[in-house]
Amino acid sequence: METIIFQDKDLDNIENQQIIRKTILEGGLIVFPTETVYGIGGNALSSSSAKNIFDAKGRPQDNPLIVHIKDPKELELYIAKKPLFTELLIKSFWPGPLTLIFEKNLKIPYEVTGGLETVAIRIPNHLVALKLLKIIDVPLCAPSANISGRPSSTRFSHVLNDFNGKVDIMIDGGSSDIGLESTVLDLTQPIPVILRPGAVTKAMIENVLEMPIIDGALEVTSEKPKSPGMKYKHYAPKGYVHLIDGALEDVITYIKKEVQSKQMQKVGVIGVEEVVRHIDDVYKVSLGAKDNLKEVGHNLFAALRQMDDLNIEDIYMHTINKDDLGEAIMNRLSKASNYHMIKL
């Protein structure tokens, strides 16, 4: 397959718009930027489009896809009912990195929802993504644009490496702003439940709702997951991830000893600047200052992909304070390490 590559400015061309719309309505796939990570999308009203996404990613078919829409007025076209809190959450966080889970109606195929009676929906806060949704005039079902289980794509070079020749169209939108997937909030329960943490934090949601909500993101289920990232190993590089928990001084000492003991292996270190600047004679990536969690989250997946590019065999990382955005970062770190943590 020859993939058409567009720059974001190319979407203003009428002929290009016709190509994009025709491709999506005929079941084709498009890789596009959002404020969170790049997505790989198809017509959310087409079961065959959903199957094509699963095939391209190598993704298990019981792992639901997120439906992207362009306007809150479209929501009632695809859900069975609008739960309490919906309007308040939409007003506060849409467009933006919050995905809401509803009971679906018959318009959304089961192939999109992983066989579930629920559907995950959000409106992206990204000019290119919104322009794309207006061009095609159908909802897009779109998971993150990465090979299943591997780190998500936050740069066009990432998706180009993963999907060139495997999808019909790709849009180069530069780097993602946030760098972490959206928060997923289940509204089908009496009390809303966070299934995946993201840039919209638990505290932010509770502040808007003026009530406590449930954090279900740490659950690893063997049943059909309601949200991406709940059942299968996710965000993992090819190398073995050693996730270390302890005071920064102890983490630095531990990593130095490990690096010295593995001189014959390709070793890498990913961490905050306060850690990696003390590590020598090894490939290392700084995520940013430990107090700048937005920068840390923005750089995380790119750092993991750099380790893959260099075929690093052992990757040492450390835990992050779970305050605020740290909860979402730790969720990705835990999954990347397959929940294997070394406590000092």
Structural features, described:
This protein is of the alpha/beta class and 344 residues long. The chain folds into 2 domains: 212 residues, DHBP synthase, CATH 3.90.870; 104 residues, 3-Layer(aba) Sandwich (Rossmann fold). The chain is built from 11 helices and 16 strands. Strand 2 and strand 3 form a beta hairpin.
Short description:
This protein is α/β, with parallel strands linked by helices and 344 residues long. The protein contains eleven helices and 16 strands.
> Runs with pLDDT <50, length 5+?
none
The CATH superfamily of the largest domain appears as DHBP synthase
SSE series? EHEEHEHEHEHEHEEEHEEHEHEHEHE
CATH topology type of the largest domain = DHBP synthase
Beta-strand residue fraction: 15-25%
Reading off the top of the CATH hierarchy, the class of the largest domain is best stated as Alpha Beta
Provide the number of structural domains.
2
Q: Classify the secondary structure makeup into a structural class.
A: alpha/beta
Query: What percent of the residues sit in helical stretches (DSSP H or I)?
Result: 25-40%
What coarse outline follows from CA principal-axis ratios? globular
Summed over residues and divided by their number, the pLDDT gives a mean of 94
Secondary structure: number of strands: 16
Rounded Rg: 20 Å
Describe the biggest sheet?
A: 11 strands, mixed
* Strand order across the largest sheet: 1-8-2-3-7-4-6-5-9-10-11
Terminal-residue CA separation: 50 Å
Q: Please give the CATH architecture of the largest domain.
A: Alpha-Beta Complex
- Number of DSSP helices? 11
